[in-house]
Amino acid sequence: MLLLLLSIIVLHVAVLVLLFVSTIVSQWIVGNGHATDLWQNCSTSSSGNVHHCFSSSPNEWLQSVQATMILSVIFSVLSLFLFFCQLFTLTKGGRFYITGIFQILAESDSGQMCSYI
């Protein structure tokens, strides 16, 4: 049972790390002097020294992707917090329904985000 709890904790932490990295990473698409991510579009001059960064386009689909990424991170953090709270307060044999619901919400948000891209 201890091994199962440890693997669940590792899974929660891995999901959080991947969500933070995918939300914060600065270059999703890299081309000739151009880099695009979720939050801004950057381009360099021909000399390669000057960066011109502009906020991402105001498309509705991009704003919905940004919102679902943030919601996914929030629900995953809440899920990990609730998991630790329930781990120490539930009686033996209790079920982690609330933690599971928040984890499902986090995954459905990130899955919904993938359908937009």
Question: Any overview of this molecule?
Answer:
The longest helix is centred in the middle third of the chain and has 30 residues, at 60-89. This protein has a 4-stranded antiparallel β-sheet, with no helix packed on it. It is built from 3 helices and 4 strands, in the order H-E-E-E-E-H-H. It is elongated, with a radius of gyration of 19 Å. Strand 1 (29-31) and strand 2 form a beta hairpin. It has helices at 2-24, 60-89, 97-116; strands at 29-31, 34-36, 40-44, 51-55. It has 117 residues and is α+β, with helices and mostly antiparallel strands. Helix 1 (2-24) packs antiparallel against helix 2 (60-89) and helix 2 runs antiparallel to helix 3 (97-116).
Task: Describe the SSE topology.
Elements: H1 2-24, E1 29-31, E2 34-36, E3 40-44, E4 51-55, H2 60-89, H3 97-116
Antiparallel strand pairs: 1-2, 2-3, 3-4
Helix pairs in contact: 1-2, 2-3
Biggest sheet, spatial arrangement of strands: 1-2-3-4
How many angstroms separate the termini? 39 Å
The SSE order reads HEEEEHH
Low-confidence stretches: none
- Could you state the oligomeric state of the chains shown? single chain
The tally of helices reads: 3
Beta percentage is: 5-15%
Outline the biggest β-sheet: 4 strands, antiparallel
The whole-number mean of residue pLDDT values reads 76
Shape: elongated
- Helical proportion? 55-70%
